[in-house]
User: Fold this.
Amino acid sequence: WTGSLSVVVPLGTYETSKTINVSLNRYAIDPTVGVTWLNPQTGLEVSGALGYTVSFENDKTDYDSGDEVHVEAAVAQHFPSGLALGLAGYGVWQVTGDSGTGAVLGDFKGRAIGLGPMASYNFDVAGYKLSANARYYHEFAVAKRFEGDTGFLQVSFKF
Assistant:
């Protein structure tokens, strides 16, 4: 079991005249809970997480993004070598509408689903335990959001 609380803080530049900005220029909080089941005899893992993102108003645009529910899931087979291969996916659904005078397109509730392969590898380097994880998601069932495939590569180590 796991739980986390992510916080988005409006750092970086934000200019209303720019189409793309580094900053969202708004606060958000995202409590998430997750669970993993791993069978050590067979190496089969099933993981899932559920979160709810609460977004606050961008005061420069008077735009309040709606809240979102997101789920993540993965099924993987772990091998004795430290390699794991599997399938990962996510879904995100905006459950409350956008609001404020800046929301000229209406409530604009978006959604997206992504699915794709994943691989991870656990290994030692100079006595440090490292873990590398790669995921690729193909998006579908996208509405009122930017659509595109995404890839992630993460490397972490234990202190």
